Amino acid sequence: MQEIEQVVAFLQREELKLTTAESCTCGLMASLMGDIPGCGQVLDSGFVVYSPKAKNRLLNVDFETIERFGLTSEEVACEMAIGALNASGATLAVSNTGVADDDQEDEGGTQCYGYALMRGERQVVASETVQFDGDRVEIRKQAARYGLTQLQIKYEQLLKKLEERDDE
């Protein structure tokens, strides 16, 4: 739990408000945050959006993006993260969509993340795909913890993206 305490401390130090947009992790990221005293200062909201319709309705994920790239894709994760920022009072978002079980189309353990930052009216987003091993429950737990523990690194990358835009 110490690593999640460090996430909360980082968010407090940077005066960031977090929102989560979770599909495969089904609220585990927000739940992990809730275990830490003081999380109410930094956790704005958590969206659990399992179905394509929920992703569209709550986070404005385009059905065309889902159709073109697949439900488990970095493109969908990016739209989820931006949608969560726009639907909340947060300044930083992490999203997750993935596969916990092997199925005919996707390999189990494949997790796609989106990280989005809002500075004033400006937004920037980054994504990545990570592979985890284990059973369904273990993959979901690893995925939730990973999404949160990467926030500081991703925040720094997002700030650099904003700076690069300013230099253009």
User: How confident overall, as mean pLDDT?
Assistant: 93
Output the CATH homologous superfamily: CinA-like
Order of secondary-structure elements: HEHEHHHEEEHH
**CATH fold assignment:** Maf protein
Beta-strand portion reads 15-25%
Q: What would you report as the Rg, rounded to the nearest angstrom?
A: 15 Å
- Class, according to the CATH hierarchy? Alpha Beta
Q: How many separate domains?
A: 1
Q: Uncertain runs with pLDDT below 50, 5 residues or more?
A: none
Shape: globular
Q: Structural class of the helix and strand makeup?
A: alpha/beta
What do these coordinates show?
The chain has a single domain, classed as Alpha-Beta Complex (Maf protein). The chain is 46% helix and 23% strand. It has seven helices and five strands, in the order H-E-H-E-H-H-H-E-E-E-H-H. The longest helix is centred in the last third of the chain and has 17 residues. The protein is globular, with a radius of gyration of 15 Å.
List the defining traits of the structure above.
five-stranded mixed β-sheet, globular, 168 residues
The gist of it:
By secondary structure, the protein is α/β, with parallel strands linked by helices. The chain contains seven helices and five strands. It has helices at about 1-15, 30-35, 50-60, 65-70, 75-85, 135-150, 150-165; strands at about 20, 45-50, 90-100, 110-120, 120-130.
